[in-house]
Inverse folding.
DNA sequence: CATCCGACG
DNA sequence: CGTCAGATG
């Protein structure tokens, strides 16, 4: 089973850039989407349905902002929209599809880059999300959490750790949170298969030709519950897909 | 002397579409511009200066809105910014360049299409503008007024007079105003040289492929003071220039 | 330096 | 159906 996660930075813009052709080629069983920046009725989901996908969306209340989605070839037994915490669910950041024991979540962690208020909210989100996942893992240990965590974990996950040590997304407290989060019983699947590999990023600023120079950050992850450890058969980052300032990240499970 | 008038619907967008190449080719002595939608400092006027133009702007207070300009190869003796009526000058709608006895004005008449309040303001503008021009003609009878009047004068100036009889821009009171305005002692220079010609328009809606089907309106004019009558040597509309929803209109004076 | 909105036309 | 601004990232 091939699961991709992709922050599209606007699903409508991404579709104009050929997302559907890419999807047909990549042909994942499940695509986790972040930053749809659209209400469901604004998304031409027939294009995905024509490829055999069932489509599920959780949009922010604010138009053009945030929003997650899940496309799945198999029809899920259950879709869980949001996490029941109002300030999170208003912003359309969490969506989950359950397939028997296997549970697959799309998450979009808030960015803190626009100022203190949003950084504070990001840290609050991280605390609440960690608690939510701790509880969920008890019920659904075979959990995949794919998405944009808006955090680089280690120095090899960012092109310039020195100059970014005070930048939201690479702050010590954010990196520490990600370590703690994994200790809840999750595996960073990319690192499972690519330990120590350098220059592997999933996001590049649009500014200053950052992507052409691979001056990026790895902030998109496929986290797998440890119960899935033996079923993980691969994980990848796909920097050649050019529909967004992010690229897709994938995990394979047997 | 070749004078063009062109509502650019955003001078920055028009420049991205090759306005400067067009200008080099058309090579007018004076270009009257409407809807710059920019503050002077946002306009790359060096590109015009490189072609030998002096540049003058009158922008609206509101950013990205309205705004007129004049480019001139000859340096004017005087530039008159606005008309001294505050509600008009706040919106950057009138700019004049004087060259000895010859006076050339760029005008952008308000649109009434967004609702009653703006239609009311348009009618008020028309009254105030008529009075302003009546007075100005006494002082400067050799006056050219080029610009977007946002009014079609007669049934041959619009592709569908019947269905537009209640549409702002072709209302009976607007058409009557334009007749009265000409009676102040002005000549619609295009009609001087193209009496009765059909399907000659200067604006097309972006909707429904209107331009490809030439379903347009003639709302851009080069009005000439009757004192200039004997000096008028031609007038044209240039629908092949594609930098805006309007096209340029020109007048030649000896 | 992109995406999207909403105002305006 | 475009342009522009402003919010957001």
């Amino acid at each position: 089973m091939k699961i991709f996660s992709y922050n599209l930075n606007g699903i409508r813009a991404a579709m104009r850039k050929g997302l559907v052709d890419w999807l047909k080629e990549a042909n994942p069983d499940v695509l986790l989407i972040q930053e749809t920046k659209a209400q469901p009725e604004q998304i031409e989901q027939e294009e995905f349905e024509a490829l055999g996908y069932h489509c599920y969306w959780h949009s922010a209340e604010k138009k053009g902002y945030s929003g997650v989605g899940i496309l799945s070839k198999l029809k899920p037994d259950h879709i869980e929209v949001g996490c029941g915490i109002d300030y999170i669910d208003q912003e359309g950041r969490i969506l989950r599809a359950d397939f028997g024991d296997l549970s697959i979540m799309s998450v979009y962690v808030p960015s803190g880059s626009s100022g203190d208020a949003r950084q504070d909210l990001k840290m609050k989100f991280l605390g609440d999300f960690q608690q939510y996942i701790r509880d969920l893992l008890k019920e659904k240990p075979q959990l995949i959490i794919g998405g944009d965590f808006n955090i680089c974990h280690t120095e090899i996950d960012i092109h310039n750790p020195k100059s970014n040590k005070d930048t939201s997304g690479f702050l010590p407290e954010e990196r520490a949170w990600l370590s703690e989060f994994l200790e809840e019983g999750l595996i960073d699947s990319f690192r499972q298969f690519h330990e120590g590999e350098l220059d592997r990023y999933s996001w590049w600023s649009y500014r200053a030709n950052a992507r052409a120079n691979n001056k990026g950050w790895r902030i998109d992850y496929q986290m797998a519950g440890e119960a899935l450890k033996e079923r993980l058969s691969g994980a990848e980052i796909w920097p050649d897909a050019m529909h967004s300032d992010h690229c897709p990240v994938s995990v394979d499970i047997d």
